[in-house]
Amino acid sequence: MANEKQSLVDELKSLLEQNVTEVKDQVENLKTQFYRQYHEEQAALKKAAEEAAAAAGEVLENWQPTLDEAEQRFRELLNEYKAKRAEVAKQLEAEQAQNLLRKENILTQMKEMAEAETADVMDNLKKMRELQAEWKTIGQVPAPKVHEIWKKYQQYQEQFYDLVKINIELRDLDFKKNLEMKTLLCEAAEKLKDNKNIVEASRALQQLHDEWAEIGPVARELREDLWNRFKEASSAINKKHQAYFDELHAKEAENLEKKQAIIAKLKEIDFASFKSNKQWDKAVEQVQELQKEWRTIGFAPKKHNQAVYDEYRQACEAFFKAKSTFYKDLRSVFSDNLAKKRALIEKAEQLKNSDAWQETSNAMIELQKEWKTIGPVARKYSDELWKKFTDTCDEFFNKKREANKEARSERQRARGERVIASGDRNKLVRMYENLQQEIKTAENNILFFTGKSKSGNKLVDDLQKKIESLKKQLQELENKINEIDAAE
Q1: Cα 139 to chain center, whole Å?
Q2: How far is CA 343 from the centre of its chain?
Q3: Looking at CB atoms within 10 Å, which of 57, 118, 155, 274 has the fewest?
Q4: What whole-number distance in Å separates Cα of residue 431 and Cα of residue 425?
Q5: Which residues, including other chains, have CB under 8 Å from residue 460's CB and lie 6 or more apart?
Q6: H or E segment at 172?
């Protein structure tokens, strides 16, 4: 992505070497692409920082975007572009003001000739043509004055030709020349209808209108028809231009609705009620799908685009902040459970060397019962703690069995009962531990199938039945172990 941003910086730099009045659309497009990538990159960096902090058991606070040299350079180039445009606009404004003064001076002279009661026809005609030629060399005037200036220019030309009553040949010659030029403009305007690029066609049409305004009149009987032809061709382009932007605005409005719908779905997620990893994993998958969909949608209307993005970003941030808080609290619970289990191990360690066999047996059994009531701990501690606890308990019960071995054998012979040997109890304990691991594996598999596909319901049902059966076996083993321990 860094290479892409640098490419956009280089492209902007290249555009600044051109005429800044002709590259506005390209610059705006580069700006949109660049900052879309920049914001996505910063969002990704922030997310990574949050996840890293979460993994470390911390909450990310006061996150600041990283220094981005490409963005700084891009902003500098934008400022340079704006400064150049401002300078060009300033120069253009001064030139247009000067052009207005020159054209007003020409109009003053044309008006004097048009309103003169007596005039030297040939001299005035020559002067009029000189003024017309000079008029055409003058550039644009301020937009608010264009129509007024052009209207007066046409008015004084027509008044002049009517007043001086130039001979028909000269008048017809000018009319013919003007007719040829305006006919060419009509043909050019009609060809623009075939231009697929409607924005380009609209700009070209404006240029044709500017040229039309500079051309003198045609014969009176042809004026209306010729103007209607030019106006009809112009109307076709203008309608296409309007339809193009209507369609563009409609698409932007549709994009706005789609984005608002995604925001609504994000806000509907009741993450405040989530109590398990499974719920959060499912919700994260849902949010990621919504984010993926968001990236496929184009721009909303300009006046709404930033606001709807800010609302979307706030909804996402609220979700992931709540997720971070949940796992932080969960780590706190794990920590409490870890302390409780370590405390039980410590008690078992203190009891394992006691020779008060019956009293200590009862105490050990109570510790085992209490162990079952304590919730889970972090996976990296779980097996280690369980092994240490069971080994400590087994150490005591093995000592007890050794101490009471002869007495127990006499009691068993007297009752004529079959004795379960102590390698037997260890075997039951190993079976118990294996069943626990098998149950844990089956429960993890259920989470996998329910998280990945709805088509896994049959497998889920089978796994659930298996877990119930395993738990019954587990309870039976636990009862047998307790019976052995109580008999000792």
Answers
A1: 46
A2: 49
A3: 118
A4: 10
A5: 446, 449, 450
A6: helix 168-191
